[in-house]
Amino acid sequence: MGLIQRIIEATGIATISISLSKNISQKVLPPRAVYTGLPLGHPLGFPGQTFRQKQVLRLLLIYLKNLNSPGTIAELDLTDSGDDSVACDICSLG
Amino acid sequence: MLFRKWVRHSTFIEFSDSPWTPFEKDISTCRLALVTTGGVHLALQKPFDMKDPAGDPTFREIPADARPADLKITHNYYDHADADKDVNIIFPIERVQELRQSSEIGDVNHRHFSFMGHIMKRHINTLMKESAPRVAAALKSDHVDIVILTPA
Predict the structure, then answer these.
(1) pLDDT band at B5 (very low <50, low <70, confident <90, very high)
(2) What are the structural domain ranges in chain B?
(3) B88 in contact with A at a CB cutoff of 8 Å?
């Protein structure tokens, strides 16, 4: 996916992705990525967690605005709690 | 564990730098599109090819107003049982509309794009020289400001 992201970014569109593998991202170096610690098949969380899914998107938009160095992979851990307020606190950074 | 093993034993194209488009816009005025590699497609569209062990480098265009019930996932290389219940966990098509309704973003592009992420050696060139540039050009012609990419 990082290869596709690189090509879109190179056409002049700002991109950000969710990384499910730091190992792959460190090799492919997408322009901006956020590693959330969420499991494979669940980049935005779990079924029915609509608020949390939206919070992950908000988080990506905050990092899109704040990451200033090409190839940065921001590392987070959203796995500790299903508590929506956790993602909410992170989003308040923006 | 299987995934880690696959990562360890697979070869990835490596880069030492990244392309970069500075982002200085007001997000609430931006047009956003999604690109997923989760193998999502309209049920009416041709499914991704699961018979070729090197994967399928083609893409599918997904209308922004598609309903989850219109969508299907064809991708045998990850467990999409949960995504089958709620596609938004890999392709947040409804969530981005909600961000638009609450004016957190300016607009949702009229189309999103989907790939099947398991693309190996002999198809990498097609992906990099044909499919991905076509999607990038389409997004550019749509005047998209932000692309969020979600893997599976």
Answers:
(1) low
(2) 28-150
(3) yes
Nearest to A24 by CA among B129, B73, B79, B119: B119
**Contact between residue B87 and residue B40 where contact means Cβ atoms under 8 Å apart:** yes
Residue in chain A nearest B37 by alpha carbon: A1
Does pLDDT of B39 surpass 80? yes
ipTM for the whole complex: 0.93
Q: Closest Cα of chain A to B60: distance in Å? A: 14
